[in-house]
Specification:
Length: 232
């Protein structure tokens, strides 16, 4: 039998390689070793375009509701929280309640991932902001593994305006609101847009997306952009 060509390691993909752009804010790698062995495509989307199932209505909805939103009083943004490690992630609209494990850089300057034998865990980059802290925080999780769907199997379906809640070790919870969901091709992954520093507390939640290829893994990454809207 012909020898199979070795698949490129997930942590060597451009989308999650350590870059100068990301160094000051976040450093992470793909959301799974291979994000599982199942060919479960995300809703078709071009690189940088909204996922069809997660765009929350698109530009037409924005135009319809712009007048109403303009008349509503704006609440002052919550104050950033001091540093405290993340412990649990909740996405109520998707039914996700997941323990969080801290992820750190290895000697090769790449971030580890949550264990494949515990696919329901979420990894949080411990070297970046903690929940509610100012800056760009990052959470990653597997989409699937060889044994079936994982914690972020349905992440592409999260809607704009949905809540993402991150509980902290000090007992407080940082509540983020989803601004947008994008599917980016790994070959043209926009490091600066995703990982760039921010003045307010923001969160990026990532997993694999697109089509699965045995030689190279998933073709894309699902990225959820959210910002802090409440603390409790």
């Amino acid at each position: 039998m012909p020898r199979r060509r070795a698949r490129r390691p997930w942590y060597r993909t451009r989308a999650f390689r350590l870059t100068r752009t990301a160094a000051l804010a976040v450093v992470l790698v793909t959301a799974g070793v291979r994000c599982g062995g199942h060919d479960v495509p995300v809703a078709p989307a071009q690189a940088g375009a909204p996922a069809a199932s997660a765009a929350g209505g698109g530009a037409d909805e924005d135009e319809r509701t712009a007048g109403n939103k303009a008349s509503e009083p704006r609440k002052p943004p919550p104050r950033p929280l001091p540093r405290s490690p993340a412990t649990t992630l909740r996405v109520p609209s998707l039914g996700i309640v997941a323990p969080i494990v801290p992820l750190r850089l290895g000697s090769d300057r790449h971030l580890g991932t949550s264990p494949l034998d515990r696919p329901k865990l979420v990894g949080w980059y411990a070297g970046g902001p903690t929940p509610g802290e100012r800056g760009t925080a990052v959470a990653v999780g597997h989409r699937d593994t060889k044994t079936g769907p994982a914690v972020f199997a349905g992440l592409a379906r999260v809607a704009r305006g949905a809540r993402i809640e991150a509980r902290r070790a000090d007992g407080r919870t940082a509540v983020y609101t989803v601004d947008r969901v994008r599917v980016f091709d790994k070959a043209t992954f926009p490091d600066k847009e995703v990982y760039g520093p921010t003045r307010r507390p923001e969160l990026r939640v990532l997993t694999c997306g697109g089509l699965f290829r045995h030689a190279t893994g998933y073709t894309s990454n699902v990225v959820v952009f959210a910002h802090l809207t409440a603390t409790r």
